[in-house]
Amino acid sequence: MQIDVVANIGEARTDEFIHKTVIVIDVLRATSTMIAALGNGCKAVVPVETVLQAKELQKPGDLLGGERFCKKIPGFDFGNSPNEYTRSAVQGKRIILTTTNGTRGIQKAMKADHVLAGALTNGGACAKAAVNFKRDIVIICAGTQDVFSLEDGLCAGLILEEIGKIAGVKNLAINDFGLAMRSCYAQAKDTLLDTLLMCANGKRLSKLGFQEDLVTCAKVNDTIHVPVLDRDQMVLLPF
Amino acid sequence: MQIDVVANIGEARTDEFIHKTVIVIDVLRATSTMIAALGNGCKAVVPVETVLQAKELQKPGDLLGGERFCKKIPGFDFGNSPNEYTRSAVQGKRIILTTTNGTRGIQKAMKADHVLAGALTNGGACAKAAVNFKRDIVIICAGTQDVFSLEDGLCAGLILEEIGKIAGVKNLAINDFGLAMRSCYAQAKDTLLDTLLMCANGKRLSKLGFQEDLVTCAKVNDTIHVPVLDRDQMVLLPF
């Protein structure tokens, strides 16, 4: 099984996703948020690029979520904090979500056979789901404005480690960037929250008062919920 | 001190090098070869992009070195193996060197105040030289055809570790990619040759019979020689 890890969305080449399973990672915070929302009973998350698209797609009963520059968009029901998407707030609802990087990553992956959303919180479950699809895998670290983000790389490393446990390390062909991320995760996994606090997005979120989100997003294998793309929306993969 | 690590030449933005020190890394094998040649008494290494440029620049007494697809160019004196550049072969000579990635990296860095060539063999010395220049630092992992190469990332991690020892870890502001490479090196440093054998270039060189080059290029802090750009050629930094 070939597994390639891509450092940021700008480097992702759409045509390379054909017949593959793509895992999109945006740990801080889009994919962590999708996982939390779907895990708490939300019906579907529709990722869109712009605020206008979000408003146009909204049907009665739908909720709007999203951020620009880490902050909630005026008039929206939620920002991009996984802790906002509680069961009482989201159960049975459809959420239109617009975030800067995670959404772009999912839209870029649409040519793949399967598109999953991965984060530290569901790394093991996401690895298992990806292996079950029996395709080569591309892991896209969403990054921030086409620049690599450490937390996404660490999550790619976690998923590679988990895939190795399932499929056997010797059966995997991993690109150089993936090998680097796997080593990086192995080195950092015992001090993951500290590492998240050191990286650019972690610092930015801390400064804006979102420390609790970092704690939530750093919980490795906290859930078995895996969002999967079904036409234009993310739904929960049956398990 | 700000230190940014860039994953491949395609991502390097020339304008960001102004007033900075740039370290170009192409462990397998261009910068390892330059270090070996200059360490063995060669007068200067002139990095050029094309075979034609190399031939045009050659003056009486100059030697030609370089590779295409890992192999020596027909009619050239040397390939791109550091082990070829022995004292008896290179002492007092100027070498015109054309390689695929390392040369492009150096040419892209030319707007910087100082341009150094780094490899695993001179990581510590290179770190010391860069700190002495008292500028912010950009470390360019040359990579291969605009794709990240693990061995260059490991070397970036080594240089960051060495800079940390000199300048104090707390005095460094490192971009996310640099933080990842530092962790990756910390994880891999005790099994460096094995790791080099696992990465794409390591496998390719092994297959072509260059295992000895991998052993040579994996020798961490084997030398104190640091090539520095002086107009259009690399010379030895005085120490």
UniProtKB/TrEMBL annotation, chains A, B:
Superkingdom in the source lineage: Bacteria
Reaction(s) catalysed by this chain, per the record, are: (2R)-O-phospho-3-sulfolactate + H2O = (2R)-3-sulfolactate + phosphate
Top enzyme class of this protein?
hydrolase
This entry's Gene Ontology molecular function terms read: 2-phosphosulfolactate phosphatase activity; magnesium ion binding; sulfopyruvate decarboxylase activity
Q: What is its EC number?
A: 3.1.3.71
User: Cross-referenced InterPro entries, in alphabetical order?
Assistant: ComB-like (IPR005238), ComB-like_sf (IPR036702)
Pfam families reported for this sequence: 2-ph_phosp
What does this protein need as cofactor?
Answer: Mg(2+)
Keywords of the record, alphabetical order, are:
Hydrolase, Magnesium
Q: Which HAMAP family match?
A: ComB
Q: Which family does it belong to?
A: Belongs to the ComB family.
The protein in question is named Probable 2-phosphosulfolactate phosphatase
